[in-house]
Amino acid sequence: MNDLMRRLLWLPVQASTFAPAVDNLHYFVITVTMAASLATGLLAFFFFFKYRERRPNQSTPVVNPSVRFEIAVIGVPLFFFLLWFVQGFKDYVWYTTPPKNTMDVYVMGKKWMWKFAYAGGGPNAIGTLHVPEGRPVRLLMTSRDVLRSFYVPDFRIKQDVIPGRYTETWFEATKAGRYQILCAEYCGTWHSQMWGEIVVMPGPDFDKWLQEQRSGLAERVDTGGDDGGSMRGSIVEYGKKIAMAQGCVKCHSLDGEPHIGPTWLDMYMRRETLESGETVVADEAYLTDSMIDPRGKVVKGYKPVMPTYKGRLAAPEAAALVEFIKSLRSENLENLPSKEAVYEPAKPAHR
Amino acid sequence: MSQPNLLTDNEKPLYPAVHYLNADRGVWSWLTTVDHKRIGIMYLVSVLIAFLLGGIFAMAVRLELLTPEATVMGANTYNRMFTLHGVVMIFLFMIPAVPGVFGNFCLPLMLGAKDVAFPRLNLLSLYLYWTGATLALSGMIMGGTDTGWTFYAPYSTSTPTTLFPVLLGVFILGFSSILTGLNFIVTVHTLRAPGMSWMRMQLFVWAIYATSIIQVLATPVIGLTVLLVGIEKVGGFGLFDATKGGDPVLFQHMFWFYSHPAVYIMLLPSMGVISDVIAAVARKNVFGYKMVAYSSLGIAFVGFFAWGHHMFVSGQSPFDNGAFAVISMFVGVFTAIKVFNWVATLYRGAIAVSAATIYVCGFLFFIVFGGMTGIAVATVSLDVHWHDTYFVVAHFHFIMVGAVIMGFLAGLHYWFPKMFGKKYHEGWAMVAASLIVLGFNATFIPQFLLGNAGMPRRYYMYPERFTTLNVASTAGSSLLAFGFIIILIYLIYALMRGELAGDNPWGSKGVEWMTTSPPDKHNFHETPVITQDPHSYQQPGEEVEHVVI
User: Fold this and answer.
1) Option in B347, B375, B542 nearest A84 (CB)
2) Chain A, window 14-43: residues with a beta carbon less than 8 angstroms from a chain B beta carbon
3) CA A289 to chain centre
4) Could you tell me if A115 and A126 are in contact, meaning their C-beta atoms sit under 8 angstroms apart?
5) Subunit contact B357:A48, Cβ cutoff 8 A
6) Looking at chain A, which residue has its C-alpha nearest residue B329?
């Protein structure tokens, strides 16, 4: 039944955990829609036939609705609409809440290609994203210039990709294979050719592939030198380089010691209290926001002295910085708020 | 009616010796007229030219999409073509069409008034329309723009194409729309004939009234928005450009705050036309008159709070998405009320078969399918897949071409004898109407499936798996175009050599038919006094059967 409906409606294969949920509701909604519009059209046609004009200036009765009829024409559609809303919104909330154990990949859209960088040490790729089957993957996406939208029809996922901001989406692929990525938000001359591909590999194959890629990378980083805005090499290494070059570490320690700004050690996902009394979780969005608009949300106890890095950090550089911050974990993984003047010895970055 | 001007059966059609068309002569008398009927006719000619242009651009787009690869034009030309199609169809045709033509022509007649409240302002609206249209089109001749009619920032603020004249054109067109809306609101409030209480107004008047409220309240926002884009593009201020600290998503909020209600600026007048035409062809009172009238106001009100459903995947918060989704469902409920009432109006009527009837029938199917696919895309999880695909394209064409143009054509055929006192060839009209309904389905049903299959909109080239459906759609569009060409031919023929129609060929009880066709320069020789409910088809003194269902 599922397969029949899917083929009748020209839907592509269902290759993610989200796809069957979308399609099931789709079948329900579209069946009722077609039934209702056909019924209306046919009923109107039947009335045209049955009540056609028999003689000129024929008189007609005055027909008026009863209260029951009025309640029915409001109630029946509203019932269906709200039912669809409830189910659709439930599915949507599930779709917008990534699980905790995702594999993270940074995505950047630019004219007219998709670039990928795996969190936690590469590799990087243009156009093709390799992911494991049966494991949730989260995409943290931004655009270098204009709006785009990351769309994988076979997964039924889509998320706008916005310059100056990170948006996220996630999926769990259910079938090994190759799936097309399309850009769904008009972005200029070759919008229609901004294609990419997701290669879904069985878990063990993927692990092997990832390891090969990373061992290949190590050599390249050693010899690569500074390659500007390009995303070759480990993204964490790259982030560290940028932190040095931009002078971030003059104010942010890497070892837990509070300085002019909060330490970066264990900062990722730490719950911080702000000057305003609100609390905020230092996720990707907060970290990138704070680079662009540092005085917007200042952690309590610190002075709003950080200059903006707007225009000084390209999108992949900001992503690399976030990855670098994420790599700085002390062995004690309790996410305690920053304390004043607590000294913790520096620890090497391990993941 | 105090002065029923109806023909009896065997009387020969009359044609008044002096009427609004020949009361004054010369081009200058047209360009300086303050007669709402002449202004309506000038709008008719203008919007038909716009429709022809927009149609040519649409056919160019469909022709390119016949094959997956590049064929008749380059990528940049294609991007300009769909932008031209959207801008011309929406700002130059769809928004002014029904209010500008039938609103101007019929509204004062339906109220029993001599003209609109501010006749000179009405002429100014037309001149503003011409100015805006000329500017927008000149921008397109000067190289064209490629942003799509949505002008999304920051693409629009960074495109190298000629955007500024188009934006200025849209800005000026907005003023035309606002002034027309203002004029109609005041007209409805102040110029109703004796006895014309609010509950005796025809449903077309209610629909135009609701539309006018949206025009006056929402249009300033699009004016401001395009102005901001223009300022940003020229001055580089960084309002929407993220690299300068702006927010591209802010543009979308501002844009859709106008452009969602704008959908109802386009749709409500056509719904009003259908209410009037359906009463006339079925010789019936409109079933649930009050519900139909108030649902127009309901749509106008709720329509203001649904804009966020265009932005479900823009990064808007899930909570906001849920709120906008629920609100959107209510627009659907108001539309459903209207549909049920229209269909029930046909029950036990005396329905005349004509081209107008076919358009009504087509309209009913399109509004239900188009409306309910609207509910489908307002269902958040489904929209994630459909957003910015051909499913959305098909959905809004069902509403805008399906419903709006069916309403426009129904009105054009229904009021053509009123405007010119001539009859067109009913047989050809029915052939064209059938072709248009069929061609329309053949064009856009494949596009729903293309959206399901995952083809994004605004695609110049596409993966080969989408070929079959694109070929089907292009084939359908040629049927559609053929239907429109037939209409153009028989209407021009009717204008030149058509038979006389008589004052009221439909036997309609609308107030606009209570004067000669074409009407006198001052509409009525004596101010009509309204004594009956609207759309009331009972003969005086006749025993009326009352039915409640």
Assistant:
1) B375
2) 21-22, 25-26, 29-30, 32-34, 36-38, 40-41, 43
3) 16
4) yes
5) yes
6) A81
CB A198, CB A152: distance < 8 Å: yes
CA A4 to chain centre: 31
- B395 and B374 Cβ atoms separated by less than 8 Å: yes
Q: Do B315 and A162 touch (CB under 8 A)?
A: yes
**Mean confidence (pLDDT) of chain A:** 83
pLDDT in tens, A228-283: 334 445 677 778 888 888 888 888 888 777 778 888 888 888 888 888 888 888 88
Tokens 């007669």 belong to residue: B35
Min CA distance, A276 vs chain B (Å)?
Answer: 22
Of A51, A81, A192, the CB nearest to B332: A81
| CB-based contacts of B357, cutoff 8 Å, min separation 6 | A48, B281, B351
Question: Domain ranges in chain A?
Answer: 2-40+64-95, 103-216, 235-327
* Structure tokens given for A266: 């264990």
What is the gyration radius of the CA atoms in chain B, in angstroms?
23
This model of the complex carries an ipTM of 0.90
* CB nearest to A25's CB, from B378, B379, B537: B379
Q: A244 near A231, Cβ under 8 Å?
A: no
> What fold characterizes domain A103-216?
Immunoglobulin-like (2.60.40)
Distance CA A197, CA A129 (A): 6
Least confident range of A208-212, B213-217, B534-538: B534-538
Dihedral angle, C-alpha A184, B320, B251, A144, nearest 10 °: -50
- Per the CB < 8 Å rule, is B76 touching A189? yes
Sign for the pseudo-dihedral over CA of B259, B263, B266, B268: negative
DSSP symbol at A117: E
DSSP A278-317: -EEE--HHHHHHHHHSTTTSPBTTS-S-PPP-TTTS-HHH
CA distance B533 to B151: 46
Q: Which range has the worst mean pLDDT, A241-250, A309-318, B167-176, B198-207?
A: A309-318
| CA–CA gap between residue A328 and residue A284 (Å, rounded) | 14
Quick check: B321 and A92 CB within 8 A? yes
Contacts of B197 (CB under 8 A, 6+ apart): none
For B241-310, give the DSSP string.
Answer: -GGGT--HHHHHHHHHHHHHHHHHHHHHHHHHHHHHHHHHHHTSPPTTHHHHHHHHHHHHHHGGG-GGGG
Query: Cα A266 from chain centroid?
Result: 24
Fold of the B34-513 domain:
Cytochrome C Oxidase; Chain A (1.20.210)
Q: Mean pLDDT over residues B216-225, rounded?
A: 92
DSSP notation for A212-233: HHHHHHHHHHHHH---TT---S
For residue B518, cis peptide bond before it (omega within 30 degrees of 0): yes
The CA distance from A144 to A229, in Å, is: 11
Q: Dihedral through CA B106, CA B112, CA B116, CA B119, nearest 10?
A: 100
Distance of CA A48 to the CA centre of its chain: 51
At residue B11, the pLDDT reads: 58
Domain A235-327 class in CATH: mainly alpha
Over residues B70-98, the mean pLDDT reads 93
Chain B residue with minimal CA distance to A29?
B376
Asked, as a colleague might, if the bond just before B534 is cis with ω within 30 of 0, I would say: no
Closest CA to B280 of B222, B202, B341: B202
How near does any CA of chain A get to the CA of B159, in Å?
A: 8
Which residues of chain B are within 8 Å of residue A54 when distances are taken between CB atoms?
350
A312: how many CB neighbours lie within 10 A of its CB?
A: 12
How far is the first Cα of chain A from the last one, in angstroms, to the nearest whole number?
46
A with B: how many residue pairs have Cβ under 8 Å apart?
A: 303
